[in-house]
Design goal:
two-stranded antiparallel ribbon, globular, 9-stranded mixed β-sheet, 11 strands, alpha/beta
């Protein structure tokens, strides 16, 4: 259902509101800011699609009543912040994040993950896929159980879709609350990034983080059936483009960005082509005589066409000064705050611009708006 936001423009939004959230560990704090801005503007998503940390944030949104969503999101991020009481001297030396990240690697985050003792047996020990990881995510299970009302997802007003990849077949699967009952295991599976985190078994099959297959789950809405007019807030936390790296340290960061950006631009470009063809089919059908339009064979072919329009409001988290390839484990209060504030500011600017209100070419099925 289209909603209205209380800005000076106060116009009806063009279709269902969809929030698409990439995976990215600590970078997901940007998504907290995005939702915060949407919530303040009176825009609540009808559908949330996420991978990894995006699935976790998505569950916190879809699995709570609108009046509780922001407080539950805030509670989660407060739980996972890596407090460093001795960081002062290290900050003075410009090494505050290094100490915090080293602590995360060595000790984990109490509300999220802790070292897995089975890993002490060595990388070659046959411990089973559900133990073959450096960390245990049992704390995350308890945290999600306390903050997400999974029962409300079943037939609730907000649809949730999370992506995970089958560890055996290598096939991507989107678990969708519209089609099945989702629980904590589905969200945990979507965030089970190997070899750090263990696989999660669903219906007897082991699943890993969908980000290792496709970290940009926008195709889930663009390929949805039946298609609907949509305003899609596509929230990316990795950068597909970037400056030429000059050191091994910078190469590691650039490689990670490219890997987890998951060809977001090419996904949208391909969908623009497909939706344009669907609109062309619709227009060609209109040119046929009425008698011909009723021909069963023509109707079958015409079913490939449609007239829906997908507005994609593309939001990309900015680079923070001094960040490197360890940015996705930067759970420091300063890092979380900076990314949250950036997401909030970027989204408010997008809402104020409301580019989806501008006239669009009727032959275009996907219209992209860049922040």
């Amino acid at each position: 259902m289209a909603r209205q936001h209380p800005s000076s423009r106060s116009a009806t939004l063009p279709g269902q509101v969809v929030l698409v959230l990439q995976g990215g560990g600590a970078l997901g704090a940007y998504q907290l800011g995005v939702y915060e801005a949407l919530h303040e503007a009176g825009i609540e998503p009808d559908w949330v699609i996420g991978t990894s940390i995006g699935a976790i944030n998505g569950a916190l949104i879809a699995g709570n009543a609108p009046e509780h969503r922001l407080e539950r999101l805030q509670a989660f991020w407060q739980h996972v912040e890596q407090q460093m009481p001795l960081a002062g001297p290290m900050d003075w030396l410009g090494m505050g994040n290094l100490l915090a990240n080293m602590t995360t690697v060595m000790r984990g985050i109490p509300a999220f993950f802790t070292p897995n003792h089975a890993a002490l047996r060595g990388a070659r020990a046959a411990v089973g896929v559900e133990q073959a990881a450096y960390y245990s995510t049992a704390p995350l299970r308890d945290t999600l159980a306390a903050l997400v009302d999974f029962e409300s997802l079943q037939g609730g007003p907000t649809r949730l879709t999370v992506g995970a990849v089958n560890a055996c077949s290598g096939a991507m699967r989107y678990f969708d609350s519209r089609d099945e009952a989702l629980g904590v295991d589905h969200v945990m599976a979507s965030g089970a990034l190997p070899p750090a985190f263990p696989a999660v078994r669903i219906d007897g099959q082991p699943y890993w983080d969908g980000g290792i297959y496709s970290n940009t789950p926008i195709e889930a809405v663009l390929d949805d059936k039946p298609r609907r007019d949509s305003l899609i807030f596509a929230v990316n936390v990795w950068h597909q483009t970037g400056p030429e790296p000059e050191s091994i340290w910078q190469v590691m960061g650039r490689q990670k960005d490219i890997q987890y950006a998951s060809r977001a631009d090419s996904h949208i470009a391909r969908q623009k082509q497909i939706h344009r063809l669907r609109h062309v089919i619709r227009e060609l059908q209109k040119q046929l005589p009425a008698a011909k339009q009723n021909d069963p064979k023509v109707k079958e072919l015409a079913a490939w066409g449609c007239g829906t329009t997908m507005h994609v409001a593309h939001l990309v988290a900015p680079r923070l000064e001094g960040e490197d390839h360890t940015k996705d484990i930067d759970f420091t209060p300063a890092g979380v705050r900076a990314r949250r504030e950036a997401g909030h500011a970027d989204t408010l600017r997008m809402i104020e611009r409301a580019p989806w209100q501008a006239p669009a070419d009727p032959i275009e099925g996907v219209v992209e708006h860049v922040a």
